[in-house]
Request: fold
Amino acid sequence: MEMISIEKELKENAYPGRGIIIGKTPDGTKAVTAYFIMGRSENSRNRVFVTEGEGIRTEAFDPSKLSDPSLIIYAPVRVLGNNTIVTNGDQTDTIYDLMNKQYTFEQALRTREFEPDEPNYTPRISGIMNVTKGKYDYAMSILKSNNGNPSQCNRYTFTYDNPVNGEGHFIHTYKCDGNPLPSFEGEPKLVGIKDDMNEFANDLWTSLNEDNKVSLFVRYIDIETGKYETLIFNKNK
Reply:
């Protein structure tokens, strides 16, 4: 698979929806993840990321304008032991709760499917990173309707053992803007990762469509120690 520029990819797509990037720094010392949300409606745009425990939660920027919290208020990031869970919905909690009961990442997601937001049937995208005493691997998942047909849920899981330095993978909910919104197709895209967290985060944020971007989360985890640094960008301030 040819590596693409994540900046170019984002600049050329006005509405990829919500996206997850997971990878490893070129120097091999950090596990990296990023999660962004976008919005077209006032309800979707009325959000910010806030810290909650070791993870984050979406929150209404102006509570008086919140019309329907069902699919937009959730915890995108939670930490369970050595695992960092990143998703675009409340399946974060499903993965956290069931893995805590010894289910696997994939088994936990067998209990869920795409979002019930007809006619888009937004895919549920999820990622999990395991960092344990110098060892690192990750997996990504997408649950989507069968080409817009909600009678069938198509489930795909992609696992990445011993990630390559400087490489990451990018998965997002929508192929592009549209009505209805077309779901992401294919396997996660191979993208480059940078050693400098501030540079990487700023490049992502400035590459997202100015009108549609809402929030961005970026975390770098030291593979040897498990210690992490986090950056959060919110358009609403």
Summary: The chain has one domain: 6-234. The chain has a mean pLDDT of 97.
